[in-house]
């Protein structure tokens, strides 16, 4: 993971580039930046600089909140406890010692690494429900890695199958999440379309994927069997 821009790098605007972002941590500058965003005076580059500056400023608070919510979910969330038990039965061990809350720069909610565990991007978490869905998603990847010996590096079909299962079983594609947060207002086939969309995006981001058409082809090839596979659950219940 690459290092984010330091605060010193953010202190001087780029020459010849009026992004609408004003460096500074004082209240006046903060609200001036928000005003520029609301009025359309800040470019996409400026909005990203504003987010980086905010993430740097709130890093300690964000990570502390993420740690607290992670610990609560590990103890009280039915889906997280069930996934933890299922992973433990396969010889794995996921707990607070290898589920890390960190500030991320790639604008993703989290990730799974077979060597290190699970990463939760503290600066991207909207609330505890979002963290629960993200953690459940990554735990499905961990389960699949142990149960099915997934070849993450070289086999896109393996990765696509796990992405389908993770999006389907984690709860991130339930109707309320799609309707109220993502503006997906269809009443039929909503769950399937959400799972397919998110799986394609994940596969497309992998180094071995050529483009969106390639990602769609791979997801379609494994869709039927992987969408029906709800292990370790009896059914999709979230």
Description:
- It is found in: Mitochondrion inner membrane.
- The longest helix is centred in the middle third of the chain and has 21 residues, at 128-148.
- This protein has a domain at 150-237.
- It contains 10 helices and 3 strands.
- Mean pLDDT is 88; it is low at 1-16.
- It has helices at 7-10, 27-38, 44-57, 59-76, 78-89, 128-148, 156-169, 175-181, 190-204, 212-228; strands at 99-102, 110-113, 117-121.
- The chain has a 3-stranded mixed β-sheet.
- Helix 4 packs across helix 6 and helix 6 (128-148) packs across helix 7.
- The chain has 238 residues and is mainly α.
Summarize the structure.
The protein has 238 residues and is mainly α. The protein has 10 helices and 3 strands, in the order αααααβββααααα. Strand 2 and strand 3 form a beta hairpin.
Task: Please describe the structure with a list of short key phrases separated by commas or semicolons.
disordered N terminus, 10 helices, mainly alpha, three-stranded mixed β-sheet, 3 strands, single chain, 56% helix, Mitochondrial inner membrane protease ATP23, 238 residues, globular, metalloprotease
- The gyration radius over C-alpha positions equals 20 Å
Element order, helices and strands? HHHHHEEEHHHHH
The beta-strand count equals 3
Mean pLDDT: 88
Into which percent range does the helicity of residues fall?
55-70%
Oligomer: single chain
Stretches where pLDDT is under 50 for at least 5 consecutive residues are: 1-16
Portion in beta strands: 5-15%
The neighbouring-strand order within the major sheet is 1-3-2
Give the termini separation: 31 Å
- Overall, the morphology is globular
Structural class: mainly alpha
Main sheet specs: 3 strands, mixed
Number of helices: 10
């Amino acid at each position: 993971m690459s290092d984010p821009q330091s605060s010193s790098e953010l202190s001087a605007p780029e020459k010849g580039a009026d992004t609408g972002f004003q460096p500074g941590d004082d209240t006046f500058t903060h609200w001036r930046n928000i005003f520029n965003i609301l009025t359309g005076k800040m470019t996409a580059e400026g909005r990203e600089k504003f987010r980086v500056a905010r993430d740097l400023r709130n890093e300690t608070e964000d990570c502390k909140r993420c740690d607290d919510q992670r610990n609560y979910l590990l103890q009280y969330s039915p889906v997280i406890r069930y996934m933890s038990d299922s992973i433990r039965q396969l010889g794995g061990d996921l707990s607070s010692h290898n589920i890390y809350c960190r500030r991320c720069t790639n604008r993703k909610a989290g990730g799974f690494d077979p060597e290190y565990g699970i990463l939760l991007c503290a600066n991207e978490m909207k609330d505890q429900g979002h963290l629960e869905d993200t953690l459940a998603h990554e735990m499905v990847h961990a389960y699949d890695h142990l149960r099915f010996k997934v070849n993450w590096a070289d086999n896109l079909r393996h990765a696509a199958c796990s992405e389908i299962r993770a999006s389907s079983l984690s709860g991130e594609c339930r109707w309320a999440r799609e309707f109220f947060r993502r503006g997906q207002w269809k009443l039929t086939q909503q769950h399937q379309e959400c799972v397919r969309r998110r799986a394609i995006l994940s596969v497309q981001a992998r180094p071995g994927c050529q483009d969106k058409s390639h990602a769609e082809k791979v997801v379609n090839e494994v869709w039927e069997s992987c969408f029906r596979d709800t292990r370790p659950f009896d059914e999709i219940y979230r």
